[in-house]
Amino acid sequence: MGSLFTLVCLSLKTRSMEFTKAESRFTILREKLKTNKRKILVFKIMSPILMALFIVFSFLIFYYNNVAQTSSDLTLIFSSLLVALFISLAVIDYVVSKKIRENKYLDNKIYKLLKI
What we know:
This protein is mainly α. It has one domain (31-115). Helices cover 96% and strands 0% of the residues. The longest helix is centred in the N-terminal third of the chain and has 67 residues, at 2-68. The chain is rod-shaped and about 95 Å long. The chain crosses the membrane at residues 40-64, 76-96. Keywords: Membrane, Transmembrane, Transmembrane helix.
C-alpha cells in the first residue's frame, strides 16, 4: 500500500513539474511575442518618417542640380543621405517581415503548448 502511495505522489509531482515547465515556457514565448510586436510598431512608425525624408532629399537634389547651380558638395551629401535612407528603409522592411514570420511561429508554438 505504501509503494502505491509513493508512486501516486511521484506521478503527481512529475505532472506538476511538467506543468510549471510548460507555464514558464509559455511566459517566455509570450514575452518574445510582445517584444516583437513592439519592434514592429516602432518600425512601422519610423518608416513613413524616413520615406518623407527620402522624398524631401530627392526634391532638394533636384532643386540644387537644376535651379541653384551650386557646388557638387551639396549634391554629394544629399545623394549619400538618399542612399543611407534607402538602405535603412530596406533593412526596416526586412526586419519587419522577419519579425512577422517569427510572431507566426511563436503563435504556433504557444498554440501547441496550450494544446498540451
